[in-house]
Amino acid sequence: MIRIGDTALALDDPVVLGVGGLVLLVLLLLILAVRAAGRTARMAEPLGQQISLLGQHVQQLGAGQEQLRGGLQHVSETQASAQVQMIQTVEARLSDVQQHMNDRLADNMMRQNRALTEMQERMKETLHGSSKQTATSLTQLQERLATIDKAQDNITKLSGDVLSLQDILSNKQTRGAFGEIQLNDIVSKALPSDSYALQATLSNGKRADCLIRLPNPPGPIVIDSKFPLEAYEALRAAGSEHELRRAAGQLKTAVRTHIKAISERYIIEGETADGALMFLPSEAVYAELHANFPDVVREGFAARVWIVSPTTCMATLNTMRAILKDARMREQAGAIRKALKQLHRDVEIIGARAGKLETHLRQAGDDVSGILVASERAGKRADRLDNFDFEELAPEEAGPVAALGGAKN
């Protein structure tokens, strides 16, 4: 490498090789010229010319070298500028790439943070829903346990009530009180409180469980409660034919005894109805009598004692309530007729006053019509006066006109 000033020339550069070749050629020509000058003088002048030409060529080579040097400098500057632009471009692209990467990373971080936040919210909601469902399940479980405890308490209480009911039914007095309480409950729900009396005493000194105050006929009727439980239980517990016949006989005897007692005690001529009711507080006993002992039921009919159960007693009492209602309607019939007469008189007075009001309204209407007609006539006259024109009067329609001046003699 050859350095000329600030310019470095490579030995293998074609331009350098060309210039070097020319320089060597020039030197060779100079040497040849010097040698030729010594040989012949005649060749001096052409040699001078050739040297002059060589000088010109050398100047031209110097100028070309200067141009080459300027071109090389321009190429170097251009290359440096290109390198700087390339470096700036690369740096700008690297900055853009770095900014883009930063933006992508920031966006990814935001997305990850948002996804994490949403995941946390979903986890919270899931945990909250799970805890809420767990709490709801626990609450429902507690409620069901409370219901089970309450049902168990009710079962325990019911067991105690069944035992107490068995104790009540095992004693005749308490069993009678049980039937009376059931009868009182049915009667109080079916009839008004002033239509019956509990534990009413009759003229013969006998006390009835319930006395229904029905109008004549049929008159007051007695309901007495009876409960042949021992005979019925013996009938249900019979295991042989002999025990069955004996229990059936006991049940018939007990029912016949009750029928006879009610017929003798609570059917009083002139005081009560010609019949009475025997209340059985058990549907099973009632069904057993009507299914297997129809002869006993017919004996009750003959003695005018009708056997009723809680269901049939309620139906019978509803019929009695209808009878009481009809009787009270008949009692109030006079008051109703009086009220209807007063209502009819009030309607007549209203009709008379309505007629007078109609007459006054008709007269007022006629007066209003007359006023409207007069008003219409007055309006037409006012219109004619408003449109009146003195010039349109005919001579004969002018009428007498008073003179403005005094009379002449």
TrEMBL record:
Pfam families: RmuC. This is DNA recombination protein RmuC homolog. InterPro entries: DNA_recombination_RmuC. The chain crosses the membrane at residues 15-34. It comes from the Bacteria. Belongs to the RmuC family. Involved in DNA recombination. Coiled coil: none annotated. Keywords: Coiled coil, DNA recombination, Membrane, Transmembrane, Transmembrane helix. The lineage of its organism: Bacteria, Pseudomonadati, Pseudomonadota, Alphaproteobacteria, Rhodobacterales.
